[in-house]
């Protein structure tokens, strides 16, 4: 029996366990990436492990989320990150150089390598055949130190593509089609592997759009084989020697197969307020107030050159605003040289820095009750920075068509020839904004810059004998990490956990933080009760770290998303699942809950737990590996790793 591509790469990197779907395995990580919003905490955690160097083949620290700062906080983060990179032999991509996923794809991602990134869109590199996964910063810190990354061996879904995209249909529409089939829930523990004759015509940047937004389905990652298109891309990036051919075996077996005929793909959109609400553009007839083009999903050279060709010589209608953020400095400077940038400016576009910016509500928030069309990957309520705005996610071509007409427009309706833009044979390469690691001998001399915004990572105590507390908040289905730990204007507090913790659940319940903190002061454990797919969206570990700081000991949910469940364990919070639907009703807010013998249950690998909700007994499931139980007993991955390394030293 042959192997899938995913299995092949996993087997080559296996460090612990057996590759059997659902079973926990540890794999060796070749490359890591971090970005500033999650990276500062990841490096603080790395430092507290007391290691002298990184152990990966390559680690890159990007600054792309908070680049245009108000106040000193982000600037302090940047200075810290630059100095840490110098100290430990990490590449440093300076602010302005571009969005981590776009730059990593252009300059570093390689077929067959494992990549772990502290950002949920790390699977973008699956476009070049990397097995690329998002994780919490602490997992990335451990991987940088040479520790294995633990995950459930995935079930592999074959997304089989046939046919060829028609003009005006794009890779974005393909991934929106995939979302319409898989939805945003129920895919935890799966990988999407793309196969079929339809892939041959898709370029690497198109593939990367698909693997990037695959994250919204909740899969562990998505991956394309490495073929002639991959070779072409690597050659165009001056990295041809890094190409190797990779594909699944012909007789590989898959858990499920999805068939998509590319010739039937039409321009689609995700409707507010979930990436999984898919509709055809031609069925939507709505006025548009704002159009935003960019983000790690759609800001490649071809994406933006096509937009520029569509807008050239025309004028932005009154009442509509247009912002464009090229994904990398490579894209921006190429367009500056070839004149396409002036076409965009002449049209009336506002050119934003090559960074995440608008995608995370950091700039150009739309006005009250408006409609914003965006090429990014998430449209959760309020993520744009405006709670009442309606965000539609589309391809760059639909976005450009809508900027031309002032309403949501299927570009096939424009009286315009399709402007076919090809990927260049050679991209313009200038890595001067990437600071390469110092020679090892010079690293120890580096002084790490710590401004007042750089706090110590808080460390949890060991798991108590029993959990005794109350339901401090009860939330519905599909609560995202944007609900738990808002970004936008709050993002600058990422390195200051006490301050950032004031905003836990802010979009849902402004009083939560104060309440939890007061209960914690009285020695009461806080518990969160949640519905389906709790913690979907980003990899931000602050959605576990800050609740931990406020004394949360457990989350009881109908289901929890992969990265968030791992983050909870990493910060000593037990992820419990309901086993009986009716128990959900027994846990309204303020219910007193006791989980006696929780330490014992963790020590003895007990899975089915009895808890007391008021006077009523409820049944909970604690489905964890031995390693996860040990982490929870220690109070989290940091104390666990420190204990484990002390143990190893004693044995020597
Ligand atoms: C996002 O898109 O929400 C982010 C900001 O890039 C996050 C990371 C974070 O929360 O900092 C992600 O996707 O993981
Ligand atoms: Fe940045 Fe948006 Fe991509 Fe997250 S989804 S990495 S905020 S561009």
Question: Can I get a quick summary?
Answer:
The chain has 652 residues and is of the alpha/beta class.
Largest sheet features: 7 strands, mixed, barrel
Write down the oligomeric state. single chain
Distance separating the two termini: 43 Å
Radius of gyration: 24 Å
Number of strands: 27
The order of strands across the largest sheet is 21-22-23-24-27-26-25
Task: Tell me the domain tally.
Answer: 3
Can you tell me the residue ranges where pLDDT is under 50 for at least 5 consecutive residues? none
CATH topology call of the largest domain: Aconitase, domain 3
Bound molecules: alpha-methylisocitric acid, iron/sulfur cluster
Q: Which overall shape is indicated by the principal axes computed on the Cα atoms?
A: globular
Query: Class of the largest domain, according to the CATH hierarchy?
Result: Alpha Beta
The pLDDT mean sits at: 96
CATH superfamily of the largest domain: Aconitase, domain 3
- Amount of beta strand: 15-25%
